[in-house]
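re the bet — no i am not wrong, look at it urself. input seq straight from the record:
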Amino acid sequence: AKLYACVAVFLTTAPCLRHPDLTPSACSMARVSYLRSYSLLQVVWGAALLALVLAFPNSGDENGSRQSENSGGISFEYHRYNEMREALVSVWLQCPSISRIYTVGPSFEGRELFVLEMSDNPGQHEAGEPEFKYIANMHGNEAVGRELLIFLAQYLCNEYQKGNETIVNLIHDARIHIMPSMNPDGFEKAASQPGDLKDWFVGRSNAQGTDLNRNFPDLDRIVYVNEREGGPNNHLLKNMKKAVDQNSKLAPETKAVIHWIMEIPFVLSANLHGGDIVANYPYDETRSGVTHEYSASPDDSVFQSLAHSYSAFNPVMSNPNRPPCRKNDDDSSFVDGTTNGGAWYSVPGGMQDFNYLSSNCFEITVELSCEKFPPEDTLKNYWLDNKDSLINYIQQVHRGIKGFVRDHHGNPIDNATISVDGIDHDITSAKDGDYWRLLVPGNYKVIASAPGYIASSRKVAVPYSPAVRVDFELESLSERKEEEKEELMDWWKMMSETLNF
Protein backbone atom coordinates (compact mmCIF):
# COMPACT_ATOMS: atom_id res chain seq x y z
CA ALA A 1 0.00 0.00 0.00
CA LYS A 2 2.89 2.32 0.82
CA LEU A 3 4.49 1.65 -2.56
CA TYR A 4 1.17 2.20 -4.36
CA ALA A 5 0.70 5.52 -2.57
CA CYS A 6 4.18 6.68 -3.56
CA VAL A 7 3.75 5.58 -7.15
CA ALA A 8 0.34 7.25 -7.32
CA VAL A 9 2.07 10.55 -6.49
CA PHE A 10 4.61 9.84 -9.24
CA LEU A 11 1.83 8.99 -11.69
CA THR A 12 0.15 12.34 -11.15
CA THR A 13 3.37 14.12 -12.14
CA ALA A 14 3.04 12.67 -15.64
CA PRO A 15 1.50 15.86 -17.14
CA CYS A 16 4.62 17.77 -16.01
CA LEU A 17 7.32 15.32 -17.11
CA ARG A 18 7.78 16.71 -20.61
CA HIS A 19 7.99 20.35 -19.47
CA PRO A 20 11.32 21.02 -17.64
CA ASP A 21 10.44 24.63 -16.82
CA LEU A 22 6.80 24.18 -15.77
CA THR A 23 6.24 26.20 -12.59
CA PRO A 24 5.05 24.43 -9.42
CA SER A 25 1.65 26.19 -9.64
CA ALA A 26 1.16 25.18 -13.26
CA CYS A 27 2.26 21.66 -12.38
CA SER A 28 -0.31 21.53 -9.57
CA MET A 29 -3.04 22.68 -11.94
CA ALA A 30 -2.03 19.94 -14.37
CA ARG A 31 -2.25 17.38 -11.58
CA VAL A 32 -5.73 18.61 -10.58
CA SER A 33 -6.89 18.45 -14.19
CA TYR A 34 -5.49 14.95 -14.46
CA LEU A 35 -7.23 13.74 -11.31
CA ARG A 36 -10.52 15.27 -12.42
CA SER A 37 -10.26 13.44 -15.72
CA TYR A 38 -9.96 10.01 -14.13
CA SER A 39 -11.68 8.37 -11.22
CA LEU A 40 -9.75 7.55 -8.08
CA LEU A 41 -10.12 3.89 -8.94
CA GLN A 42 -8.39 4.45 -12.29
CA VAL A 43 -5.53 6.33 -10.61
CA VAL A 44 -4.99 3.60 -8.05
CA TRP A 45 -5.23 0.93 -10.77
CA GLY A 46 -2.70 2.86 -12.86
CA ALA A 47 -0.42 3.16 -9.84
CA ALA A 48 -0.64 -0.57 -9.26
CA LEU A 49 0.22 -1.26 -12.88
CA LEU A 50 3.19 1.11 -12.77
CA ALA A 51 4.35 -0.50 -9.54
CA LEU A 52 4.28 -3.86 -11.29
CA VAL A 53 6.24 -2.45 -14.22
CA LEU A 54 8.87 -1.06 -11.86
CA ALA A 55 9.09 -4.30 -9.96
CA PHE A 56 9.00 -6.64 -12.98
CA PRO A 57 10.81 -5.24 -16.05
CA ASN A 58 9.64 -6.18 -19.54
CA SER A 59 10.41 -9.78 -20.39
CA GLY A 60 12.87 -10.17 -23.21
CA ASP A 61 14.01 -6.55 -22.84
CA GLU A 62 15.78 -6.40 -19.51
CA ASN A 63 16.71 -8.48 -16.54
CA GLY A 64 14.80 -8.18 -13.28
CA SER A 65 16.00 -5.98 -10.44
CA ARG A 66 19.15 -7.32 -8.82
CA GLN A 67 20.47 -6.79 -5.35
CA SER A 68 24.09 -5.82 -5.07
CA GLU A 69 26.52 -4.77 -2.41
CA ASN A 70 25.78 -1.21 -1.28
CA SER A 71 28.24 1.37 0.01
CA GLY A 72 26.83 4.56 1.46
CA GLY A 73 23.43 3.81 -0.05
CA ILE A 74 24.84 3.47 -3.59
CA SER A 75 24.14 0.34 -5.61
CA PHE A 76 27.24 -0.43 -7.71
CA GLU A 77 25.65 -2.38 -10.53
CA TYR A 78 24.57 -1.94 -14.12
CA HIS A 79 21.02 -0.66 -14.46
CA ARG A 80 18.90 -1.77 -17.41
CA TYR A 81 16.21 0.65 -18.58
CA ASN A 82 13.54 -0.19 -15.99
CA GLU A 83 16.16 -0.48 -13.26
CA MET A 84 17.53 2.95 -14.18
CA ARG A 85 14.02 4.39 -14.03
CA GLU A 86 13.45 2.70 -10.67
CA ALA A 87 16.74 4.09 -9.32
CA LEU A 88 15.79 7.65 -10.35
CA VAL A 89 12.32 7.30 -8.82
CA SER A 90 13.93 6.03 -5.62
CA VAL A 91 16.07 9.18 -5.40
CA TRP A 92 13.02 11.33 -6.00
CA LEU A 93 11.02 9.50 -3.32
CA GLN A 94 13.92 9.82 -0.87
CA CYS A 95 14.55 13.52 -1.59
CA PRO A 96 11.26 14.92 -2.98
CA SER A 97 11.91 18.48 -1.81
CA ILE A 98 15.10 18.84 -3.86
CA SER A 99 14.48 16.60 -6.87
CA ARG A 100 12.20 16.08 -9.83
CA ILE A 101 12.06 13.62 -12.72
CA TYR A 102 11.16 14.68 -16.23
CA THR A 103 11.80 13.49 -19.76
CA VAL A 104 12.98 15.43 -22.78
CA GLY A 105 11.36 12.94 -25.16
CA PRO A 106 11.41 9.32 -26.33
CA SER A 107 14.10 7.35 -28.11
CA PHE A 108 13.49 5.75 -31.51
CA GLU A 109 12.17 2.61 -29.77
CA GLY A 110 10.06 4.59 -27.30
CA ARG A 111 12.25 4.61 -24.19
CA GLU A 112 12.20 7.95 -22.39
CA LEU A 113 15.29 10.14 -22.06
CA PHE A 114 14.87 10.68 -18.34
CA VAL A 115 16.42 13.57 -16.45
CA LEU A 116 16.71 13.88 -12.69
CA GLU A 117 16.78 17.51 -11.63
CA MET A 118 18.26 18.52 -8.26
CA SER A 119 17.59 21.98 -6.88
CA ASP A 120 16.16 23.66 -3.81
CA ASN A 121 13.29 24.74 -6.09
CA PRO A 122 12.86 21.83 -8.52
CA GLY A 123 10.97 22.61 -11.70
CA GLN A 124 11.73 26.30 -11.61
CA HIS A 125 14.48 28.49 -13.05
CA GLU A 126 15.47 30.88 -10.28
CA ALA A 127 16.58 34.28 -11.52
CA GLY A 128 20.33 34.61 -11.09
CA GLU A 129 20.93 30.90 -10.45
CA PRO A 130 22.99 29.01 -13.07
CA GLU A 131 21.81 25.82 -14.79
CA PHE A 132 24.14 22.82 -15.09
CA LYS A 133 23.80 19.46 -16.84
CA TYR A 134 25.50 16.09 -17.04
CA ILE A 135 24.64 13.79 -19.93
CA ALA A 136 25.95 10.28 -20.54
CA ASN A 137 25.61 7.14 -22.64
CA MET A 138 25.01 8.85 -26.00
CA HIS A 139 27.02 5.91 -27.31
CA GLY A 140 24.94 3.09 -25.87
CA ASN A 141 27.86 0.72 -25.34
CA GLU A 142 29.85 3.29 -23.34
CA ALA A 143 28.28 2.38 -20.04
CA VAL A 144 30.42 3.76 -17.22
CA GLY A 145 29.10 7.32 -17.48
CA ARG A 146 25.50 6.11 -17.32
CA GLU A 147 26.17 4.34 -14.04
CA LEU A 148 28.27 7.16 -12.58
CA LEU A 149 25.37 9.59 -13.05
CA ILE A 150 22.95 7.22 -11.32
CA PHE A 151 25.48 6.89 -8.50
CA LEU A 152 25.91 10.68 -8.44
CA ALA A 153 22.17 11.24 -8.06
CA GLN A 154 22.06 8.78 -5.16
CA TYR A 155 25.14 10.38 -3.58
CA LEU A 156 23.80 13.94 -3.82
CA CYS A 157 20.53 12.91 -2.19
CA ASN A 158 22.26 10.97 0.60
CA GLU A 159 24.79 13.70 1.38
CA TYR A 160 22.20 16.46 1.27
CA GLN A 161 20.19 14.62 3.91
CA LYS A 162 23.34 14.21 6.02
CA GLY A 163 23.89 17.98 5.90
CA ASN A 164 27.12 17.81 3.88
CA GLU A 165 27.84 21.54 3.47
CA THR A 166 29.47 21.19 0.06
CA ILE A 167 26.51 19.26 -1.36
CA VAL A 168 23.91 21.47 0.31
CA ASN A 169 25.53 24.55 -1.24
CA LEU A 170 25.83 22.79 -4.59
CA ILE A 171 22.09 22.09 -4.71
CA HIS A 172 21.00 25.44 -3.25
CA ASP A 173 23.18 27.55 -5.55
CA ALA A 174 22.59 25.85 -8.92
CA ARG A 175 19.96 23.84 -10.78
CA ILE A 176 21.52 20.48 -11.69
CA HIS A 177 20.13 18.28 -14.47
CA ILE A 178 21.33 14.67 -14.73
CA MET A 179 20.57 12.58 -17.85
CA PRO A 180 22.09 9.11 -17.33
CA SER A 181 21.27 7.84 -20.82
CA MET A 182 20.80 9.68 -24.10
CA ASN A 183 20.81 6.36 -25.97
CA PRO A 184 18.82 3.84 -23.92
CA ASP A 185 18.10 1.72 -27.03
CA GLY A 186 21.80 1.29 -27.75
CA PHE A 187 22.52 0.42 -24.14
CA GLU A 188 19.92 -2.35 -24.13
CA LYS A 189 21.47 -3.83 -27.25
CA ALA A 190 24.97 -3.69 -25.76
CA ALA A 191 23.86 -5.02 -22.37
CA SER A 192 22.03 -7.94 -23.98
CA GLN A 193 25.32 -9.48 -25.10
CA PRO A 194 26.26 -12.48 -22.93
CA GLY A 195 29.35 -12.46 -20.70
CA ASP A 196 31.61 -9.68 -19.47
CA LEU A 197 33.45 -9.17 -22.77
CA LYS A 198 31.32 -6.85 -24.93
CA ASP A 199 31.83 -6.07 -28.61
CA TRP A 200 33.51 -2.69 -29.20
CA PHE A 201 30.74 -1.43 -31.52
CA VAL A 202 27.49 -3.26 -30.66
CA GLY A 203 25.06 -0.69 -29.23
CA ARG A 204 27.19 2.35 -30.05
CA SER A 205 24.56 3.83 -32.39
CA ASN A 206 20.89 4.35 -31.69
CA ALA A 207 18.26 1.87 -32.92
CA GLN A 208 18.30 3.55 -36.35
CA GLY A 209 22.03 2.93 -36.72
CA THR A 210 22.84 6.64 -36.19
CA ASP A 211 25.96 7.72 -34.30
CA LEU A 212 24.44 10.42 -32.12
CA ASN A 213 27.78 12.18 -31.63
CA ARG A 214 28.03 12.77 -35.39
CA ASN A 215 24.37 13.70 -35.78
CA PHE A 216 24.18 17.28 -34.52
CA PRO A 217 24.07 20.19 -36.99
CA ASP A 218 27.67 20.95 -38.02
CA LEU A 219 27.93 24.50 -36.70
CA ASP A 220 31.76 24.41 -36.71
CA ARG A 221 31.80 24.75 -40.49
CA ILE A 222 29.53 27.81 -40.23
CA VAL A 223 31.55 29.54 -37.53
CA TYR A 224 34.82 28.84 -39.37
CA VAL A 225 33.42 30.66 -42.44
CA ASN A 226 32.17 33.48 -40.22
CA GLU A 227 35.64 33.82 -38.69
CA ARG A 228 37.05 34.54 -42.15
CA GLU A 229 34.23 36.49 -43.72
CA GLY A 230 32.38 38.00 -40.77
CA GLY A 231 29.17 36.84 -39.17
CA PRO A 232 27.67 35.66 -35.86
CA ASN A 233 29.97 33.87 -33.42
CA ASN A 234 27.25 32.11 -31.44
CA HIS A 235 23.57 31.14 -31.30
CA LEU A 236 23.85 29.87 -34.85
CA LEU A 237 20.51 28.02 -34.67
CA LYS A 238 18.54 31.02 -33.43
CA ASN A 239 14.86 30.82 -34.43
CA MET A 240 15.46 27.47 -36.17
CA LYS A 241 13.19 25.25 -34.04
CA LYS A 242 10.93 24.39 -36.96
CA ALA A 243 13.91 23.55 -39.17
CA VAL A 244 15.22 21.16 -36.51
CA ASP A 245 11.86 19.41 -36.24
CA GLN A 246 11.61 19.01 -40.01
CA ASN A 247 15.16 17.72 -40.51
CA SER A 248 14.74 14.01 -41.29
CA LYS A 249 18.49 13.38 -40.85
CA LEU A 250 18.33 14.11 -37.13
CA ALA A 251 17.60 11.18 -34.83
CA PRO A 252 14.72 11.60 -32.34
CA GLU A 253 17.24 11.53 -29.48
CA THR A 254 19.25 14.32 -31.15
CA LYS A 255 16.17 16.47 -31.73
CA ALA A 256 15.05 16.03 -28.12
CA VAL A 257 18.44 17.09 -26.73
CA ILE A 258 18.69 20.04 -29.15
CA HIS A 259 15.37 21.41 -27.87
CA TRP A 260 16.51 20.79 -24.30
CA ILE A 261 19.70 22.78 -24.91
CA MET A 262 17.79 25.61 -26.58
CA GLU A 263 15.02 25.86 -23.96
CA ILE A 264 17.00 25.93 -20.70
CA PRO A 265 19.75 28.55 -20.15
CA PHE A 266 22.49 26.04 -19.38
CA VAL A 267 25.84 27.54 -18.41
CA LEU A 268 28.04 24.45 -18.11
CA SER A 269 27.86 20.80 -19.11
CA ALA A 270 29.87 17.61 -19.47
CA ASN A 271 29.21 14.71 -21.82
CA LEU A 272 30.43 11.39 -20.42
CA HIS A 273 31.92 8.79 -22.79
CA GLY A 274 34.17 5.72 -22.64
CA GLY A 275 37.04 4.21 -24.61
CA ASP A 276 39.88 6.29 -23.14
CA ILE A 277 40.67 8.33 -20.03
CA VAL A 278 40.88 12.06 -20.76
CA ALA A 279 38.92 15.33 -20.55
CA ASN A 280 38.39 16.64 -24.09
CA TYR A 281 37.52 20.27 -24.90
CA PRO A 282 36.44 22.28 -28.03
CA TYR A 283 36.79 22.55 -30.82
CA ASP A 284 36.23 18.93 -31.76
CA GLU A 285 36.22 19.53 -35.51
CA THR A 286 39.40 20.80 -37.17
CA ARG A 287 39.37 24.01 -39.18
CA SER A 288 41.22 22.63 -42.19
CA GLY A 289 39.44 19.29 -42.25
CA VAL A 290 42.56 17.23 -41.47
CA THR A 291 42.29 14.43 -38.93
CA HIS A 292 44.60 15.91 -36.27
CA GLU A 293 44.94 19.65 -35.72
CA TYR A 294 44.74 21.76 -32.58
CA SER A 295 41.52 23.71 -33.07
CA ALA A 296 41.24 26.42 -30.43
CA SER A 297 37.91 28.05 -29.68
CA PRO A 298 37.78 31.74 -28.68
CA ASP A 299 37.50 30.47 -25.08
CA ASP A 300 40.44 28.09 -25.31
CA SER A 301 41.90 29.16 -21.96
CA VAL A 302 38.53 28.71 -20.24
CA PHE A 303 38.06 25.24 -21.73
CA GLN A 304 41.58 24.18 -20.79
CA SER A 305 40.84 25.23 -17.21
CA LEU A 306 37.47 23.44 -17.17
CA ALA A 307 38.97 20.22 -18.51
CA HIS A 308 41.75 20.42 -15.95
CA SER A 309 39.22 20.98 -13.15
CA TYR A 310 37.89 17.50 -13.94
CA SER A 311 41.12 15.64 -14.70
CA ALA A 312 43.04 17.01 -11.70
CA PHE A 313 40.73 15.25 -9.22
CA ASN A 314 40.86 11.91 -11.02
CA PRO A 315 44.06 10.07 -10.00
CA VAL A 316 44.10 7.86 -13.09
CA MET A 317 43.30 10.60 -15.60
CA SER A 318 45.88 13.03 -14.21
CA ASN A 319 48.66 10.43 -13.88
CA PRO A 320 51.42 11.56 -16.31
CA ASN A 321 52.86 8.03 -16.37
CA ARG A 322 49.61 6.30 -17.29
CA PRO A 323 50.22 4.05 -20.31
CA PRO A 324 47.92 4.37 -23.34
CA CYS A 325 44.70 2.36 -23.20
CA ARG A 326 45.90 0.31 -26.17
CA LYS A 327 49.39 -0.32 -27.45
CA ASN A 328 49.00 1.61 -30.71
CA ASP A 329 46.88 4.49 -29.34
CA ASP A 330 48.10 7.99 -30.15
CA ASP A 331 47.70 10.06 -27.00
CA SER A 332 50.44 12.56 -27.88
CA SER A 333 47.90 15.41 -27.59
CA PHE A 334 47.11 14.55 -23.94
CA VAL A 335 48.39 17.09 -21.40
CA ASP A 336 47.70 16.50 -17.69
CA GLY A 337 44.75 14.30 -18.57
CA THR A 338 43.22 16.80 -21.02
CA THR A 339 43.21 17.25 -24.78
CA ASN A 340 41.88 19.57 -27.43
CA GLY A 341 39.34 17.62 -29.47
CA GLY A 342 40.72 18.46 -32.91
CA ALA A 343 44.27 17.72 -31.82
CA TRP A 344 43.16 14.22 -30.78
CA TYR A 345 40.95 13.50 -33.80
CA SER A 346 38.37 15.54 -35.71
CA VAL A 347 34.69 14.97 -34.90
CA PRO A 348 32.15 16.72 -37.17
CA GLY A 349 28.57 17.01 -35.93
CA GLY A 350 29.44 16.47 -32.26
CA MET A 351 27.32 17.53 -29.30
CA GLN A 352 30.14 19.31 -27.47
CA ASP A 353 30.75 21.98 -30.10
CA PHE A 354 27.01 22.23 -30.80
CA ASN A 355 26.41 23.36 -27.20
CA TYR A 356 29.04 26.07 -27.46
CA LEU A 357 27.90 27.39 -30.86
CA SER A 358 24.12 27.16 -30.45
CA SER A 359 23.65 28.33 -26.87
CA ASN A 360 25.40 29.85 -23.85
CA CYS A 361 26.49 26.42 -22.63
CA PHE A 362 30.16 25.44 -22.35
CA GLU A 363 30.55 21.66 -22.62
CA ILE A 364 33.49 19.28 -22.42
CA THR A 365 33.59 15.55 -23.20
CA VAL A 366 35.00 13.25 -20.54
CA GLU A 367 36.31 9.81 -21.51
CA LEU A 368 36.07 7.70 -18.35
CA SER A 369 37.44 4.24 -19.06
CA CYS A 370 39.65 2.29 -21.44
CA GLU A 371 36.95 -0.38 -21.68
CA LYS A 372 33.59 0.80 -22.92
CA PHE A 373 31.52 -1.74 -21.01
CA PRO A 374 33.79 -3.02 -18.21
CA PRO A 375 32.82 -5.79 -15.77
CA GLU A 376 30.26 -4.81 -13.16
CA ASP A 377 32.63 -5.43 -10.25
CA THR A 378 34.83 -2.53 -11.45
CA LEU A 379 32.08 0.10 -11.20
CA LYS A 380 32.82 0.98 -7.57
CA ASN A 381 36.44 1.81 -8.46
CA TYR A 382 35.30 4.04 -11.33
CA TRP A 383 33.01 5.85 -8.90
CA LEU A 384 35.81 6.38 -6.40
CA ASP A 385 38.12 7.67 -9.17
CA ASN A 386 35.51 10.12 -10.49
CA LYS A 387 33.39 11.21 -7.51
CA ASP A 388 35.51 14.24 -6.57
CA SER A 389 35.89 15.24 -10.22
CA LEU A 390 32.12 15.12 -10.78
CA ILE A 391 31.51 17.37 -7.76
CA ASN A 392 34.35 19.76 -8.51
CA TYR A 393 33.26 20.18 -12.12
CA ILE A 394 29.75 21.25 -11.08
CA GLN A 395 31.32 23.94 -8.89
CA GLN A 396 32.97 25.49 -11.95
CA VAL A 397 29.57 26.90 -12.93
CA HIS A 398 30.26 29.64 -10.36
CA ARG A 399 33.26 31.17 -12.15
CA GLY A 400 33.70 34.31 -14.25
CA ILE A 401 31.02 36.98 -14.09
CA LYS A 402 27.26 36.96 -13.63
CA GLY A 403 24.52 39.49 -13.20
CA PHE A 404 21.42 41.08 -14.68
CA VAL A 405 20.71 43.31 -17.65
CA ARG A 406 17.84 45.72 -17.00
CA ASP A 407 16.46 48.95 -18.39
CA HIS A 408 16.30 52.25 -16.47
CA HIS A 409 13.00 51.20 -14.93
CA GLY A 410 14.37 47.94 -13.54
CA ASN A 411 12.68 45.76 -16.15
CA PRO A 412 14.69 42.72 -17.29
CA ILE A 413 16.08 42.69 -20.83
CA ASP A 414 16.21 39.19 -22.24
CA ASN A 415 18.39 38.20 -25.16
CA ALA A 416 20.82 41.06 -24.48
CA THR A 417 24.31 40.37 -25.80
CA ILE A 418 27.21 40.13 -23.36
CA SER A 419 30.55 40.64 -25.11
CA VAL A 420 34.03 40.42 -23.66
CA ASP A 421 36.66 42.56 -25.34
CA GLY A 422 39.24 40.32 -26.99
CA ILE A 423 37.11 37.13 -26.94
CA ASP A 424 35.13 36.55 -30.13
CA HIS A 425 32.28 34.64 -28.52
CA ASP A 426 29.21 36.34 -27.11
CA ILE A 427 26.57 35.02 -24.73
CA THR A 428 23.05 36.31 -24.15
CA SER A 429 20.83 37.07 -21.17
CA ALA A 430 17.97 34.75 -20.18
CA LYS A 431 14.29 35.63 -19.76
CA ASP A 432 14.83 37.32 -16.37
CA GLY A 433 17.68 39.39 -17.76
CA ASP A 434 20.15 37.16 -15.91
CA TYR A 435 23.40 36.02 -17.49
CA TRP A 436 26.51 34.01 -16.65
CA ARG A 437 29.83 34.30 -18.48
CA LEU A 438 32.59 31.80 -17.64
CA LEU A 439 36.08 33.35 -17.61
CA VAL A 440 39.56 32.57 -16.30
CA PRO A 441 41.14 35.02 -13.83
CA GLY A 442 42.12 38.35 -15.37
CA ASN A 443 41.06 41.90 -16.15
CA TYR A 444 38.29 42.32 -18.69
CA LYS A 445 36.18 44.93 -20.44
CA VAL A 446 32.60 43.65 -20.68
CA ILE A 447 29.93 45.18 -22.92
CA ALA A 448 26.17 44.67 -22.70
CA SER A 449 24.01 45.61 -25.67
CA ALA A 450 20.49 45.02 -26.96
CA PRO A 451 18.42 46.23 -29.93
CA GLY A 452 16.79 49.55 -29.09
CA TYR A 453 19.19 50.31 -26.22
CA ILE A 454 22.48 52.15 -25.79
CA ALA A 455 25.35 49.75 -25.08
CA SER A 456 27.07 49.92 -21.71
CA SER A 457 30.58 48.74 -20.77
CA ARG A 458 32.26 47.86 -17.48
CA LYS A 459 35.80 46.96 -16.49
CA VAL A 460 36.10 44.07 -14.07
CA ALA A 461 38.82 42.08 -12.32
CA VAL A 462 37.89 38.39 -12.23
CA PRO A 463 39.32 35.99 -9.62
CA TYR A 464 39.28 32.19 -9.97
CA SER A 465 36.01 32.03 -8.04
CA PRO A 466 33.36 32.90 -7.09
CA ALA A 467 31.78 34.68 -10.04
CA VAL A 468 31.84 38.49 -9.82
CA ARG A 469 28.45 40.23 -9.89
CA VAL A 470 28.33 42.73 -12.77
CA ASP A 471 24.91 44.27 -13.47
CA PHE A 472 24.06 46.46 -16.44
CA GLU A 473 21.41 49.15 -16.79
CA LEU A 474 20.73 50.04 -20.41
CA GLU A 475 19.13 53.25 -21.57
CA SER A 476 16.43 53.03 -24.20
CA LEU A 477 17.25 54.77 -27.49
CA SER A 478 13.71 56.10 -27.78
CA GLU A 479 13.89 57.55 -24.27
CA ARG A 480 17.29 59.08 -25.02
CA LYS A 481 15.90 60.72 -28.18
CA GLU A 482 12.95 62.05 -26.22
CA GLU A 483 15.31 63.47 -23.57
CA GLU A 484 17.46 65.07 -26.27
CA LYS A 485 14.36 66.57 -27.85
CA GLU A 486 13.27 68.02 -24.52
CA GLU A 487 16.77 69.39 -23.88
CA LEU A 488 16.78 70.99 -27.33
CA MET A 489 13.40 72.59 -26.73
CA ASP A 490 14.55 73.92 -23.36
CA TRP A 491 17.67 75.37 -24.97
CA TRP A 492 15.64 76.97 -27.77
CA LYS A 493 13.23 78.45 -25.23
CA MET A 494 16.13 79.87 -23.22
CA MET A 495 17.77 81.36 -26.32
CA SER A 496 14.47 82.86 -27.47
CA GLU A 497 13.90 84.54 -24.13
CA THR A 498 17.52 85.79 -24.01
CA LEU A 499 17.46 87.22 -27.51
CA ASN A 500 13.84 88.44 -27.31
CA PHE A 501 12.72 86.29 -30.31
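see?? The radius of gyration is 25 Å. told u. also The longest strand covers residues 99-106. so pay up
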